[in-house]
Amino acid sequence: MANFGPKDIKKLREMTDAGMMDCKQALSATDGDMDGAVEWLRKKGLGAAAKKADKVAAEGTITIKVDGHSALMVEINSQTDFVAKNEKFQSFTSEVVSHAFTQNLATAQEILESEISGQNFSEYLALQIATIGENLVIRRVARIDGANNVVVNGYVHAGGRVGVIVAAECESTEAQSAVAEALKNVAMHAAAMNPTYLNEEAVPAETIEKEKEIAREQLLKEGKPEQILEKILPGKIKRFLQDNTLENQKFVMDDKISVGDYVAKVAKEAGGSAKLVDYIRFELGEGVEKVEEDFAAEVAKQMAK
Predict the structure, then answer these.
(1) Cα separations (Å) of 132 from 18, 78, 240, 262, 269?
(2) Which of 15, 123, 155, 223 has the highest CB neighbour number within 10 Å of its CB?
(3) Distance between CA 137 and CA 287 in Å, rounded?
(4) Which DSSP letter does residue 200 get?
(5) How far apart are alpha carbons 72 and 291 in whole angstroms?
């Protein structure tokens, strides 16, 4: 006779979020021992996670946490957009970001090698994979930790598909609050306009040279004389820098000024000065090679098992 009942199955399910039949099987395998059943499910979860590990995870969400002079941005991938909108997945991402922020973790590898809620993160992740039912990947992390004169903010766009964190250095404490609020607008701008670099200093010299070569070839094809190219090229490079650096882009909320000028203006009105010093932008799944699944074939394969 089984040493457990429906109430035990319900309790185990609430503890682990595992499926009802899995909970029943776990209690059966451990003769009703609750701790043993949890361990059984964790081991089963590890097995389930291994089966799902080869599934491409290119959906998911980007989550940001900002507190004090620090900002953290984490991209966590799932296989489908449907799961990314699931409450359990959202709770999982929130817990991971809070854990990483509190423990001062700055890379995906550091998260994977950490301990969370008294267990190795790899075990915790495997259990989440088993519970949620898809491969989950802690893909990348960005962190800004500023000094006392640095303010930070961030913005998540389109339900977690784009995330931006930015930082500015303030000359006076009077300007910090106003500038921090303004950085939310700067992050929104960057989410929409996707600048490649923070400022001119961040653009590699080889990139400038490559742009000069491209511009020179274009001008020659347009029939411009060789002797006047050097007079035209500086203007071309200036336009490239304006289009591709956050500081120099025209601010979307007021295209009469640049983003850098907007930050300086806000600081000046608050009684100080400020300058952008850091910018990081994530776009969900960028660089991940997505595999197009034949849904009918996938269903047939599952039925054949």
Answers:
(1) 9, 10, 45, 44, 49
(2) 155
(3) 14
(4) G
(5) 29
Q: What is the pLDDT of residues 218-250, one digit of tens each?
A: 888 888 888 888 899 999 999 999 999 999 999
Indicate whether 287 pLDDT > 70. yes
Q: Virtual CA dihedral for 170, 172, 178, 179, nearest 10 degrees?
A: -10
CA 233 – CA 211 distance, rounded (Å): 9
Q: Model confidence over 197-225: pLDDT tens digits?
A: 999 999 999 999 999 998 988 888 888 88
Pick 53-145's CATH classification: 3.30.70.260, 3.30.479.20, 3.40.50.300, 3.20.20.60: 3.30.479.20
Q: What is the pLDDT of residue 305?
A: 47
d(CA 249, CA 252): 9
Going by the DSSP 8-state scheme, the letter that residue 31 receives in this structure is T
Tokens 């799944």 belong to 285
167 in Cβ contact with 183 (< 8 Å): yes
